[in-house]
Amino acid sequence: MGIENIVVWVIIGITALVSFKGFDNVYFFRKYDFHIGSIRAGEQHRMFTSAFLHVDPVHLIFNMYTLYIFAPMVLGGLGVINFLIIYFASLICGNLLTLYIHKNDLYYRAIGASGAVMGIIYSAVLLDPDEIIYLFFFLPMPLYVFGLGYLIYSIYGMRAKADNIGHTAHFGGAIGGLVFTLCKRPELFQTQTLVIGLLIVPIVILFFMARSGKI
Fold this sequence. Notes:
Keywords: Hydrolase, Membrane, Protease, Transmembrane, Transmembrane helix
Membrane topology: Multi-pass membrane protein
Transmembrane segments: 6-29, 106-126, 132-153, 165-182, 188-210
Largest sheet: 2 strands, antiparallel
CATH class: Mainly Alpha
Number of domains: 1
CATH architecture: Up-down Bundle
CATH topology: Rhomboid-like fold
Distance between the termini: 44 Å
Order of helices and strands: HHEHHHHEHEEHHHH
Helix content: over 70%
GO molecular function: serine-type endopeptidase activity
Number of strands: 4
Radius of gyration: 16 Å
């Protein structure tokens, strides 16, 4: 097993262990989830630890399976160090955006590796937008279509507020993955101009929704 596979499996393993601990221990879950009131009171560790918790096994499996599928494209295109930087930078960017948008909602809670995984998705889309994946194992679609659809679903999730999944973090993570990948591969501005424009659209929509108070 190469170092690239080891890195991905270590992230998946740690996330799974922490998540299952949270499934069985409400105190543990509440101590490390993303909670605006607690973060503003000084518990900044929640900005990081919340990404290793998940709502339930389905949420965990979906995020980790998505990471497993997209990680090889980023590892192959940018290497292990840059992969790790994108993953953890997107994690923090996602939670920073969540904190900014929901800063006045002291009871707001969220968990999940969504921001970090979204950063990897966006990076992979930029590196190889026409790569075909199979949604639900049978529905083929290009990477850029999946990336756009995932963010559009996140807009719905943010407005519905029907779960504790960190939908807002998807956007912060997407921004992190987009910016860092373009910094490392500036030639993509010329070779993937249309794809970059398409990926920015949902982020712009989010910005105007936030400005108008619709989320």
